[in-house]
Amino acid sequence: MTFEKSILAAIVAVSAMAFTAPALADGEIKYRQAVMKSIGGHMGAISGIIKKGTANRANLVTHAQGMADLAGIAATVFPEGSDFGETEALPAIWEKPEDFKKAVKMFEDAASAFNMAAKSDDMAQIGPAFGNLAKTCKNCHENFREKKQ
Ligand code: HEC
User: Fold this and answer.
1) Cβ–Cβ under 8 Å, residues 139 and 103
2) Would you call 130 exposed, middle or buried from its count of C-beta atoms within 10 A (0-12, 13-18, 19+)?
3) How far apart are the first and last CA of the chain?
4) If you average pLDDT over every residue of the chain, what do you get?
5) Counting atoms of ligand 1 from 1, which one is nearest the CA of 103?
6) CB 9: neighbour CB atoms within 10 A?
7) Looking at residue 148, what is its pLDDT?
8) Is 102 a pocket residue for ligand 1 (Cβ < 6 Å)?
């Protein structure tokens, strides 16, 4: 197969998948979990910097910006129909959309406040802002994520 033909075949295969609902839901779930893992990754990196486990303190602003950007897209990773399959997302997300929106908003606000604090480079602001951010993860996980046994 030529290179062009194999690219074409891949495009055809991907578009065929897009029209199959279960595959799409599966993709949405995997994408959501990947976004959450990125959020968790930034959280771990930030925690390492705050606890002085690394000399890379100057990178804090990068992780804070990444966290704020990801908080900004958090609302988009829970589309209708992505509630069944290999997911820990609870039906409450779609059954109580107003409550869920509030949990997302809390996260967005805390992530942007943390971003501002990180830019200030003032530990007296960074510490409490990090605590508030962590609370918003916990709040949403407690109400909208299946508990691990
Ligand atoms: C608005 C709700 C909400 C907020 C806020 C939120 N999460 Fe999540 N998180 C979820 C849900 C729901 C899942 C389960 C997703 C799934 O399985 O489809 C999840 C899953 C995860 C996972 C596991 C991903 C995987 O499958 O491997 C990690 C790690 C994670 N969240 C970290 C965080 C951190 C850290 C924060 C805060 C900085 C945060 N989350 C904020 C709702 C939220």
Assistant:
1) yes
2) buried
3) 49
4) 91
5) 1
6) 11
7) 76
8) no
Contacts of 56 (CB under 8 A, 6+ apart): 49
How far apart CA 28 and CA 36 sit, in angstroms, is 12
Q: Which candidate, 22, 117, 107, 6, places its Cα nearest to that of 64?
A: 117
Using the structure block, give the residue that is written with the tokens 């779609």: 94
Cα 36 to ligand 1 centre (Å): 5
Residue 104 has which token pair? 């997302």
Instruction: Calculate the alpha carbon distances from 39 to 42, 43, 72, 83, 133 in Å.
Output: 5, 6, 11, 20, 11
Instruction: Please identify, by atom number, the ligand 1 atom nearest to the C-alpha of residue 145.
Output: 12
Residue 5 is predicted with a pLDDT of 74
Task: Report the b/e string of 83-117 with b at 16+ CB within 10 A.
Answer: beeebebbeebbeeeeebeebbebbbebbbbbbeb
- pLDDT band at residue 31, thresholds of 50, 70 and 90? very high
111 CA to middle of ligand 1, Å? Answer: 14
Whether pLDDT at 107 is above 70: yes
Per-residue confidence (pLDDT) for residue 48, from 0 to 100: 97
